[in-house]
Design goal:
Structural class: alpha/beta
Shape: globular
CATH architecture of the largest domain: 2-Layer Sandwich
CATH class of the largest domain: Alpha Beta
Helix content: 25-40%
């Protein structure tokens, strides 16, 4: 049974991730569940801050999420800040031993620093129940992900390693479970007998937003498809689990990811890439990607990637799954689209050509839409497409709040398991190799457009 943690130890507490996302999410969580306010927040970093400076950072972050005064007071009464070199085993050991057990160590650090810190932990006796939480990317390819997993599970059991993917805390993504498995009209037709294709799209109008240091080394395929969208695919395509216990759910996801294959088996044709040039996004002038501060043009980093895969099993064989994500696009489009096959026979006398039935699950604002054919308003025998749409209630917590709740409970349900992290790299590694050797084109598209003009 998982054990709730008593200390939330935030490594990299002065960084952007901590201030912009993690601390506000923690405040939201403690507001929603006041019984958790006993958790002790400890900030740690290389900056020479005193407790007053740290408390001011906590106040500002909580204010951005409109956290209640009661929660702010409860956290500030217990929180503290420690200056520490997280790559030094002695300093890291002293920090951990000063915390109430069991602690949750959240590595809000660059991947290379996280790796060095975890290596230092090999020399540190960890209290029983210690939880480790790591941000993506989990390695840089399949081999490095496997090595990282060996290191982590040398430190603590796999069930106490939380590879954070905030997408798994999105209310829309979690709604996939109810949509598929609680509706008799849905589950029987989610298979290759009825589904023509599945599209998982996360198109953004955002550009680099001061993230060039990370993004220019990663690109759209690694940043979004390898990490987030393949996890969403696993929820879309998995077999019904016996329960939502973390073992059952993560076993079902792992089975799907092991079955994922590049469409046609050819990395050069199963994927394509592009990079934005100067343009206008929603009235905002955007420079050419290569002119963005911190970008190295010689890297050939893509800002739009598309990957087509097949889930090679009995349920899904022959159905293309298209995963697409990009930046600086004209339309903000974040959705899962299931396109169904046309009817086997259309009775003679019905006028018009039916459009494909589609189910759309949209993310932020969350909604569900079902596109169908019905009789038109004029001629009763003429087909007319209609859309049945419903807004979905916002989640109880923002995505990071849901992830932190599971982390503090010691429940890995919303975390990425080690073997699935390796499988995601297995899928994209061949594509990354052919992209690096320059044998496939890097297309371009004006910022604010829908992508390259010759893409479908």
């Amino acid at each position: 049974m998982s054990t709730p943690v008593g200390t939330f130890l935030l490594l990299g507490a002065s960084g952007d991730l901590a201030g912009r996302l993690l601390l506000p999410a923690l405040g939201d969580l403690l507001d929603a569940e006041p019984e958790r306010r006993s958790v002790v927040l400890v900030g740690a970093g290389s900056e020479d801050w005193d407790d007053a400076t740290w408390q001011e950072r906590v106040r500002r972050s909580f204010a951005s999420a409109e956290v209640t005064a009661e929660t702010v007071a409860a956290v500030l009464a217990r929180t503290r800040y420690v200056r520490v070199d997280v790559t030094d085993a002695g300093e890291l050991g002293a920090l951990i031993s000063s915390c109430a057990a069991p602690p949750a160590l959240y590595f809000a650090l660059p991947p290379a620093v996280t790796l060095r810190a975890c290596t230092a932990l090999l020399e540190v006796p960890l209290p029983e129940g210690t939880v480790l939480a790591l941000e993506k990317p989990f390695g840089t390819d399949e081999e490095s992900a496997r090595s990282l997993n060996v290191l982590l599970t040398t430190l603590v059991p796999e069930s106490q390693v939380h590879r954070i993917d905030h997408f798994l805390g999105r209310s829309t993504v979690l709604n996939l479970l109810g949509l598929r498995f609680a509706n008799r009209l849905q589950e029987p037709v989610w298979n290759n007998l009825h589904v023509e294709r599945v599209d998982i799209v996360f198109d953004e109008q955002l550009t680099l937003e001061n993230r060039a240091r990370y993004y220019d080394a990663a690109g759209a395929l690694t940043d979004m498809i390898q990490s987030h969208l393949l996890q969403v695919l696993a929820l879309v395509a998995m077999e019904p689990p016996a329960s939502l216990d973390h073992s059952d759910l993560r076993d079902a996801k792992a089975a799907v990811l092991r079955a994922v294959r590049l469409w046609g088996g050819e990395p050069a044709t199963a994927a394509r890439r592009a990079r934005y040039t100067a343009g206008d996004v929603d009235g905002r002038a955007v420079p050419d990607y290569t002119a963005e501060p911190g970008v190295d043009p010689s890297r050939g980093t893509e800002t739009l990637a598309e990957l087509v895969v097949e889930v090679a099993n009995w349920r899904w064989a022959g159905v293309p799954f298209r995963l697409r994500s990009g930046k600086a696009l004209g339309e903000r489009r974040k959705e899962v689209v299931v396109t169904f096959k046309p009817p086997n026979h259309l009775p003679e006398g019905l006028a018009g050509r039916p459009v494909a039935d589609r189910l759309r699950l949209r993310m932020g604002p969350d909604s569900i839409a079902l596109e169908l054919n019905v009789n038109g308003p004029g001629d009763p025998l003429e087909l007319d497409p209609v859309t049945l749409e419903s807004a979905l209630a916002a989640g109880r917590l923002p995505a990071y709040g849901e992830v932190l709740a599971a982390l503090l409970d010691g429940n890995p349900l919303l975390s990425v398991r080690g073997d699935t992290a390796e499988q995601c790299w297995r899928v994209v590694d061949p594509v990354l190799r052919v992209w690096r050797d320059g044998s496939t084109p890097l297309d371009t598209y004006p910022a604010g457009s829908g992508g390259p003009a010759d893409w479908d």
